# Entry
Amino acid sequence: MKSPILASLLLLLTLTACDNTTTDEPVIDPTLVRVKVKVIDYSPAPGQFINTLPQVNPGTSREDVIAKVEAVFNGSDDAAVITLGAFGGTVTVKTAEPISGTFQVIGNAIPTQGEPGLISISADGNKWYDIPGENYSKAKRTTVTYHRPADGASDQDYIRWETADGASGYLSRIPDFHTQNYFPEWENSPTMTFTALRLPDNLTFDNKTLQYVLTPMNGYADCFPNNNNRSLIDPSKAVDNDGKPAPITSFSYIRVHSSTLQNCGPLGEASTEVGGFKTFK
# Structure
């Protein structure tokens, strides 16, 4: 949901909301360094930053898009991010060296506004383990299908979605900020379908301040600023499909998926953004 333009707007909108910045928010230890990665897959869902984070023009191939994502992740600019779009959008990477301890998924979260991305890890790229964060026990496996916007679709009813259990709605278009196509340019299908764990909505509307608040949730990507210790992820908490502690001591694969399906009024859909990965020397 956030861009360099919207970040300032969101900050203004949330100054009087519940503030999650506390004394546990020091500058992160300088021994936290960026991890070089190879992007295995980038499959974002539709959203307002699609085709801009990264910049994609009509005719760009999937391979070129993946190269753009990899360049962001292996760059040095912590402000540079790519979007996973709405619920279900995902990115998968292989690290140059195995990770065995605490790590960070770089995001663009600002205080009081979190767009949680659930993180999974794997030693071999086949057997995956989730790292559960706040409200993970309430997550539900959900299948959602997004439809390419029809010619002349209104801004309010721009991209239709429906879930396998019968829910439906729209991703709205925000013409004041983003006028490009919200459906990935490199996708030729009229629909995109994702199946993933969906976290409970973290969006509330404060009637007193007239603000939309996306309450950050511990343990997920893009929920706390990069200089906040709560943005650090502990892989020792990983679990298998039965919720039991994962038998994994190091990992070389990381997957992040956008984990909520919610519209935030004039700010558009909630979407996880990722800028790369860091760990301690």
